[in-house]
Amino acid sequence: MRIIVLSDSPWSEDNSFGNSFTNIFRGIPDLEFANIYCRYGKVDSELVSESFQITEKQLVKNLKNKSVPSGTVVPVHTDSNAAQTEKPIGFEVGQKKRWMLMFLARDLIWKIGRWCSPELKAFVDDFKPDLIFQPIYYSNYLTRIALFLKKYTGVPMVGYISDDCYTLRQFSLSPLYWIDRLHKRRKVKKVFESCEFVYVISEIQRKEYEQIFSKKCKVLTKCADFSQPPELKEKLNEPLKIVYTGNLGPGRWQSVSYIAKALKNINRETVKAQMYLYSATPLTEKQKAALADGKNSFLMGAVPSSEIEAIQKDADILVHAEGMNLKSRLQVHQSFSTKIVDYLKNARAVFAVGPSDAASIDYFINNASAITATNEAEVEEKLRCYTDKPENIKLYAEKAYECGKKNHSSKIMKKMVNDDLKEVVGR
Q: What count of other Cβ atoms lies within 10 Å of the Cβ of residue 164?
């Protein structure tokens, strides 16, 4: 089966998109992928046989000179220099700071740019896809290209969405934000309507999107091999080692700071537990002071992704956190972090902090697979269920692994995907 995947980032195992897609599709037989992508960088996955890159820089050059192609075939599994890998000056800063004017300028380039080129059509024609597997983005140009590919190829399309790109369950005081969202959600709806069915990231998202779009939705997350018995820790660290790995962005850092604050009280007489935070997120001095005091909690900075598994396995308790302020709650309402599957696979007790209406916290509560605190007042009391009763650590480590086995088994999930895609192509 030949499948086109249109994405923003290149399908590379060093970014979240590529890592997740390789995890989902690796091991499923008779699949061949072509990746059309719209960012800087190179494809790096053994699953992808062909790739085509379109960037703003190429579009601008093509507008100045029609003889310059707006997109390029980029050979994979070679040392080819055909891919554009360097971002324009100021692009990364603007992206991180979420400058609205930068995003509007980018949308304008894609609107007037000649991305629908003879080169793109020739690439699609040569690949001869049987199916389009389409990540659904909150993006005008990606939805526009997806709809073009669907119409041009005439093959079925299956969608995959991991963020809330449609509902108005958001918070912003900016009129530009709401104008932008109202405009983009129309395109998102058209992509949904063009799909045979849509994979979603959480049960909450499944229920809400099936009701909104009257379209069949199925939960699809990162998966892992749960066929062997869990590798439980034989001996706990002294003091207990609590570990957080990942983003400490807006809202989330504050939830983690509640744990740091609770540890000061828990350790008042004896140091029972310490927390280690591994994150590349830039932090203010105020945030650093709230998160780490050098006695109860420590900021460890960023580490290579190759070291994360060993760090998590060395922990006694792994932390999952979601922001509790209104804006954060609305943003993460449907979201499910891919690292949760890693936590469950590593068979470690999980301490989850966040609002009960966040999909990930709701998941832990419904599966009884973590001790959860759903507001600041609960954090110390619930954390003491581990620090004062260490026997609960092994109990919840076992529960975490069983939850992963039930919901994220590679064998079960890959069979579902394989059967689904064969059914769609065979219609």
A: 23
Domain hosting residue 397, numbered range: 240-407
Query: How many angstroms separate the CA atoms of 140 and 20, rounded?
Result: 23
> Based on the domain organization, do 419 and 399 belong to the same domain?
no
Residue 115 contacts residue 148 (beta carbons within 8 Å) = no
Distances (CA, A) of 201 to 20, 110, 163, 274: 11, 28, 8, 32
Give yes or no: residues 205 and 275 share one domain.
no
Burial of residue 269 (number of CB atoms within 10 Å: 0-12, 13-18, 19+): exposed
CA distance 144 to 110: 10
Q: Quick one: 45 and 100 in the same domain?
A: yes
Q: Assess whether 197 and 105 both reside in one domain.
A: yes
Question: What tokens were used for 158?
Answer: 């299956």
Residues 157, 150 contacting (CB under 8 angstroms)? yes
Amino acid at 55: T
Average pLDDT over residues 50-55: 96
Rg of the chain's alpha carbons, rounded to an integer? 23
Tens digits of per-residue pLDDT, 77-114? 776 666 666 555 555 554 445 556 777 788 889 999 99
Q: Say whether both 339 and 402 belong to one domain.
A: yes
Under the phi-then-psi rule, with left for phi > 0, alpha for psi from -120 to 50, and beta for the rest, what region is 246?
left
The amino acid sitting at 396 is Y
Q: Check: pTM over 0.85? Answer yes or no.
A: yes
